[in-house]
Amino acid sequence: MQQDRVAIAIIGAGTIAQTHAAVIAKSPDAILSAIVDTNDAGRNLADKYHAKFFGSIEDMLKWRSQLSIDAAIVWSIGTVIGVSGVWASLKPPEYFQGNGKWRGGLDGGVILINLIHEVDLLQYLIGPIQRVYAEKALSIRSHEAEEGLSLTLRFQSGVVGTFLALDNVASPFNIEAGTGENQELYPFSGQDCYRIFGTSGTLSIPDNKLWSYTEPKKGRNSLPWRYIRLDSQDLEDLAWLMKSDDFLGAAVTMPNKIRVIPYLDELSDDARRLGCINTIYVKKSLNGKGRGSLVGTNTDWIGIKNALRNHEAALVQSLQDRPAVVIGGGATSRAAIYALVKGFNVPEVFLVNRDPTEVEMTIKDLKARGMSESLIHLRTVEDVHEMLHGMTPAVIIATIPDSPPQSESEKLLRAIALRLIEMHSRNSQVKPGIFLEMTYTPSPWTQLAKTAADADWKIVTGVDVMELQAVEQSVIWTGRNIDNLPYAEASKAMRSSIVMDKRDKIM
């Protein structure tokens, strides 16, 4: 099926494009979706392989943006310090004969034919090159053009590197052999030809293997996993990845926490009671053969539970005597309810949302799944005082986006939230509780969180929750405990990417 295949576009319809197109057409895992060129050669190639034709990259990108499908691979190797690369192969005599005679002249050679592409790729990966030192290699063909050279590089970022380019040696180390893109000239080897060295790991390309120290104090062990970011609105993209024998698991975000369930083999007990997941892992088969089952579970609620437990023990203890409130109606609100009920035995959880129907459906669904605890819908500002009997909540968990209210239902939701926050001012004997703001991008300091902080609520942010639930995910995927995972490095990297606030000291 086409939706199970990776869509590829080719920019430029020259000689090598013909090879690329033929390889893609034969692949069961890929489909040639577009050709971009400025002349009829591109249009003819597109017609041959039933692909779309575009006269510019901009037009192609506009077309792709309508599909909202994009995949990117992200590796964490820390600060890049160095890079090494090699393009080495043995070009046969016929490569330089007939129409290819020019390749041995001053317009050819390994620099203009091969190295220019490697330098382009290096600058894409590392940044602009600032300084180059080169040494010419031995020549064996008596051509005018050089047959090889070695480079010492310094990039503007301070990264240093080396590169070796040779077209007169027997070698499997070149990008074409490593990827198999032109097997008529370069037999497939699967070998790497680039290595990027960082403070936390080393990445090789194109085999995309990541090496790092997992226990620097106890020994040097290789991490055999990599984390792939998949930005897509099409679940078939994830389904395609899950079929791979190399698939270890996945973190699932909105809006797919419920939609992905039909693609799984089974659910954990927590996921069944919640009716949504955020984590997929592979459970080994009983006989040890085959890939095993795809299991969906939920670690959001564990992150919420642990984040609350790490702050203000006395307030958390008061949950058994004071009400709790969840603002929002999506999958995250379900996790919040579950954390309060299962983690703290809260007798009553009050729900607030802009869509009353969604709240009623959530209550009905959770009760049908065995959550018999009292779930109460706050519909109006007046309900806040009447249904809570004037008691300030011990915890308020907000799971809604930080955007100004526009519709009447959104304005009502905001008014109810503000009344809940200010309740303690009407009862001076009751201290304000914990306000957990689940939103963390671009900043966890939403308008509601700032208002709650100004009203002396203890603020816990979604950054804490995300970090703690991610620990649970990593333990599930890898089978390692937290002491054997790079928790501190991951926490630092995550927090550095989020816009924080001077009030973070109270977190």
From TrEMBL:
Residue span(s) of domain Shikimate dehydrogenase substrate binding N-terminal: 222-280
Domain Gfo/Idh/MocA-like oxidoreductase N-terminal: 7-76
InterPro entries reported in the protein's UniProt record: Aminoacid_DH-like_N_sf, Gfo/Idh/MocA-like_OxRdtase_N, GFO_IDH_MocA-like_dom, NAD(P)-bd_dom_sf, Shikimate_DH-bd_N, Shikimate_DH_fam
GO MF entries: nucleotide binding; shikimate 3-dehydrogenase (NADP+) activity
GO BP field: chorismate biosynthetic process; shikimate metabolic process
Domain GFO/IDH/MocA-like oxidoreductase: 77-203
Similarity field: Belongs to the Gfo/Idh/MocA family.
Protein name according to UniProt: Quinate/shikimate 5-dehydrogenase/glutamyl-tRNA reductase domain-containing protein
